[in-house]
Amino acid sequence: MNWMNSEAFTLFGQRIIWSDMVGNILGLITLALGWRRSLWTWPVQFLSGLVLFVAFYGHLTGSAGKQAVVMAVALYGWWQWQRNRRRSADGHIAPRFATWRERAAMLGAAAAGTVAVALLFTAYPSLSWDPWPDAYIFVGTIVAMYAQAKGMVEFWIAWLLVDLVGVPLNFANRYAFSGFVYVIYGALVLWGMRDWWLRSRRTAQPVLEGAPA
User: Cα 145–113–80 angle (5° rounding)?
Assistant: First the structure.
């Protein structure tokens, strides 16, 4: 699979490699499907992780390992949405806001996880090309995917926080296509957050018995 790490084309003087392009296009589709609350968001997320795992395996073991974790969380998300979508009137996951306890738990896990993963990356430089920002993005992605699996509106906020670091970091490290995709991610995040926010408010309204749906 060496062709996955070969140059696809040049954009604004920067090399765009196939794995970077294909993986991020699939990631973009994943986010759009998540906005629509489609169960297919998880298989596409798994496929995106698989493409990048194959591209990294054998020469960037740390990056390959991160994609393995992403694929595992995608399977968890599929299971959660498959189980919970039947509880919603329209057959999709019903968005909700996290409780304060859940928010505190996710913030604590994100902070502790970022420190732990960054220290691991620092101890083993071959696992990452920029330990602290890379750890922040990796852990933030896992937290966002977990919140999405639970149907929490806050998952969009977690993605936005990841984007704030991911965009400049990708451009700085010459991953131009990833940088451009992260900009589009930001727009989708804002639209998706608005949609889930409004749906969570409608879901929270009590429905009177005998009232039309």
Answer: 25
Query: Which class for 203: exposed (0-12), middle (13-18), buried (19 or more C-beta within 10 A)?
Result: middle
Q: Per-10-residue mean pLDDT for the chain, 213 residues long? A: 66 70 83 88 91 70 76 94 71 85 96 95 82 89 92 90 79 66 77 82 49 40
CA gap 165, 132 in Å, rounded: 11
d(CA 213, CA 202): 12
Q: What angle do CA 188, 190, 195 make, to 5 degrees?
A: 90
Q: How far is CA 23 from CA 28, 48, 56, 111, in A?
A: 9, 5, 11, 27
C-alpha span between 155 and 168 (Å, rounded): 21
Give one DSSP letter per residue of 131-153, joined into a string.
Answer: HHHHHHHHHHHHHHHHHHHTTBT
